[in-house]
């Protein structure tokens, strides 16, 4: 069961249209460029892995929801703990607001993922800028 009291929540604005941000989230190669290497496919029920740093176990994941270009939701198993990652996109003129909720993280993982997501969003911005 997911403990929703341990949420990481971030909202970030990107100066790119929603379709472009969606592509960076919903395509495995683009996702690998800013998040982690993976064997992701954007279809509900697909099980995949994110490859972390050497020496760390991969993150086992499953696609729970795909609603292009607005929402992606995954189950991640991190060090044996089931968590949920939900990314929601909202167009705002020519920009896109990305809302992330990562729920169910134990305190030690939450303290790592809270700033870690911000670093990943910086990487996503670089990927979007490179086009």
Describe the structure.
The N and C termini lie far apart (39 Å). The mean pLDDT is 94. The protein has helices at 18-26, 28-34, 107-130; strands at residues 8-14, 47-50, 59-67, 71-78, 81-92, 95-103. The protein has 131 residues and is α+β, with helices and mostly antiparallel strands. The protein has one domain: Alpha-D-Glucose-1,6-Bisphosphate, Chain A, domain 4, CATH 3.30.530.20. The protein has a 6-stranded antiparallel β-sheet with strand order 1-6-5-4-3-2, with helices on one face.
Overall shape? globular
Order of helices and strands: EHHEEEEEH
CATH evolutionary superfamily: START domain
Radius of gyration: 14 Å
Strand content: 35-45%
Distance between the termini: 39 Å
Task: Please describe the topology of this protein.
Blueprint: E1 8-14, H1 18-26, H2 28-34, E2 47-50, E3 59-67, E4 71-78, E5 81-92, E6 95-103, H3 107-130
Antiparallel strand pairs: 1-6, 2-3, 3-4, 4-5, 5-6
Helix pairs in contact: 1-2, 2-3
Key phrases:
6-stranded antiparallel beta sheet; Alpha-D-Glucose-1,6-Bisphosphate, Chain A, domain 4; 3 helices; 131 residues
Put the structure in a nutshell.
This protein has helices at 18-26, 28-34, 107-130; strands spanning 8-14, 47-50, 59-67, 71-78, 81-92, 95-103. With 131 residues, the chain is α+β, with helices and mostly antiparallel strands.
